[in-house]
Design brief:
- Helix content is 43%, strand content 23%.
- It is an alpha+beta fold and 333 residues long.
- The chain folds into two domains: 3-123, PAS domain (Beta-Lactamase); 129-331, 2-Layer Sandwich (Heat Shock Protein 90), CATH 3.30.565.
- The N and C termini lie far apart (63 Å).
- The relative contact order is 0.07.
Length: 333
Amino acid sequence: MSNDTLTPQTWDTRRLRIATEAAGVALWSWNIATDEITLDDRACTLWGVSLDGPVTFEDLSAQIHPQDLDRVRAAFAATREVAGSYEVDFRILNVGAVRWISARGRGDDEGIVGRLMFGVFLDVTERKLAEESRELLASEMSHRVQNLFAIAAALTGISARAASTPQEMAVDLRQRLIALGHAHELVRPSLAEQKKAAPLGELLSLLLAAYDDRGLVGDRIKLSVPEILIGEGSITTLALIVHELATNSLKYGALSRVCGHLQISCTVDDRDVILVWTETGGPPIAGLRGQPGFGSKLIRNSVSEQLGGTIHFSWPPEGVVATLRLNKGRLGV
């Protein structure tokens, strides 16, 4: 469209409204004298407030996530002193749902009309969720790399105890690392290669083989599980949980000591599979202290969100006990 065809009527109120609706833009104005904020229909829907009339910043504050409220207050108070454009991202609570909002405008009273300042709200929830997903993935990868270094060091110690010559130690350590690699393949999600359903006993043996004295489950690690199949959709998640528990045991628990033992038992009822992870002979553990680490959060999220279950830890004097109650349907049993 050439410039000579652009007339004021091209951008009249109706056409501007069509453009803002197409872009998902919500409009607001702020009366700096009365502190009243006027919202258009889209903004009212976004915030879950009435269309009857203006609201105040305090009214909207009731919808802002408590963890973001002080930051948002400070940011909006500073907008009149900030030259140029500003953007403030924060969370709001609308009927129990969390949405991410981006408030945008121009500071230093630029564009003010009388006592009214203007700006827009954008719903940026999908972008924020994508950012959080990428951050979670990066944190998980960092956590796994750190664990792999710790595991490699611990496996070297186990191999040194099990071997009588350097050559035997090299062969033993190589076999353990190969077993660890096979287990890691189960932990790594893969869209290109779908995993087949596997018996629970075989799955646990594969995951834990590298951690036992002879590189095979049966010495320090004992399994007592029924003959049940784990569906292909749950193998990666269950492998991740077992791998994380074993890594923690190798770093801090029973598997970190020569005299330590691990017993895994399992029972099945009408609805759940109950997996009990029992460590004995490890160093004294007084239970969880401080905030849970990334690994603990990873385990709990995997159990609850992906396997529809719960995990409970107890720390009796003889060692840690983890009880996993997993939804039988989610496991594909």
